[in-house]
Amino acid sequence: MSKLILFNKPCGVLTQFTGEPGDRTLADFIDQPGFYAAGRLDKDSEGLLLLTNDGRLQQRISNPRHGKGKTYLAQVEGAISEQAIRQLRQGLQLKDGPTRPCEAAAIAEPALWERQPPIRFRKNIPTSWLELTLTEGRNRQVRRMTAAVGFPTLRLVRIAVDKWELGDLQPGQWLMVDS
């Protein structure tokens, strides 16, 4: 039977089981042979990472042609404008081509754990929070999209992939479920 691991990846952890000496990897948290990441999260990003023991399920989750929504909370530098949110929703032209339209909304600061290391703090520059749901997963896409509309991402937390949600998992915790 196919199994899934829902893992809350901490900031600074590579989305692989091996790395260079000194790198923090999935092996520091998960000791389950035969499981592989279904998708990736940048080293600087946090939140929900799915791992599975089923190659076909891994492909259905991670391949953008299947249109699985991935929902992120992004803390951005500056007070986000309605115009920037509209641009995100419509899709943008990035160096590697146009993005698909996505769901985007400004939100109140979410109740999250403290990030380690903390984001840089600037007393005179406000920050805003967005919730974004994308159906594609290009390299550093959310970060590139928010920067393209003038609001660089300071913190990025994935909270859902398709029907699977982060829930109450704390950084470094994982839960095994049937797929």
Map the helices and strands.
Elements: E1 3-9, E2 36-37, E3 46-52, H1 55-62, E4 70-77, H2 82-90, E5 93-94, E6 97-98, E7 103-107, E8 127-134, H3 141-148, E9 153-161, E10 164-165, E11 174-178
Parallel strand pairs: 3-9
Antiparallel strand pairs: 1-3, 1-11, 2-3, 4-8, 4-9, 5-6, 7-8, 9-10
Task: Describe the protein in words.
The longest helix is centred in the middle third of the chain and has 9 residues, at 82-90. The chain is 14% helix and 32% strand. It contains 3 helices and 11 strands; from the N terminus they run βββαβαββββαβββ. A hairpin with an 8-residue loop joins strand 2 (36-37) and strand 3 (46-52). The protein is globular, with a radius of gyration of 16 Å. The strands form 2 sheets. Strands 1, 2, 3, 4, 7, 8, 9, 10 and 11 form a 9-stranded mixed beta sheet that branches.
Brief sketch in words of this structure:
The chain is an alpha+beta fold and about 180 residues long.
Protein traits:
179 residues, alpha+beta, two-stranded antiparallel ribbon, 3 helices
Q: Structural class of the helix and strand makeup?
A: alpha+beta
Order of helices and strands: EEEHEHEEEEHEEE
Provide the residue-averaged pLDDT: 93
- How does the overall form come out from the CA principal axes? globular
- Overall radius of gyration: 16 Å
- How many runs of DSSP E, i.e. beta strands? 11
What is the number of helices?
3
**Largest β sheet strand count, sense and barrel closure:** 9 strands, mixed
The unreliable regions are: none
Strand content: 25-35%
In whole angstroms, the N-to-C terminal distance is: 8 Å
Helical residue percent band: 10-25%
